[in-house]
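Run log, item B.
One chain of 169 residues. Sequence copied directly from the ordering sheet:
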Amino acid sequence: MKTILWATLTANGNYAQSGPDNPPKKEALHDFATHAKAAGNFIVGRRTFEGMRGNGGPGPFGEVDIVIVSKNASDIPGVTVVRSPEEALNHLRQKGHQTALISGGADIHNSFLSQDLVDEVIFNVAPVMEGKGLNLLIDKDNYSYKHVELLNCQPLGGGIVQLRYAIQR
């Protein structure tokens, strides 16, 4: 199964954090919806899912399999809750998916990256700089690196530039 990590980064390289004062750009949200529909699924952490869902209902993802990775969430109607990245991928394999889209947040992204479970990354670089922020790390404790190959670079509009890389595994 091909795994694609999708994330928005700031212009100064932090993992972008959105909120009422700094909402996500509509161009990035549209791109995420396009990738989720193409994959037929996405994997997300509980807190990020709750933020995406807002006032309830499936939102624009009614036909998409949503898998929440959480160590302590109980059943959530309309989605599958699992305890680990491996369990999330196994669930999607069993459902016949060929691609898994990993949508965040930072803890989920870092879990997949540190376990070498990501084939490609899609970074949407937003036109904002943030102070204290989160990072995407392949190893939280030790210096390490992975070579990547640029697959595509394109503007999405709204000042966002999308970079797509294959990760050498």
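Observations after the first pass:
- The longest strand covers residues 148-157.
- The chain has a mean pLDDT of 88.
Flagged for discussion on Thursday.
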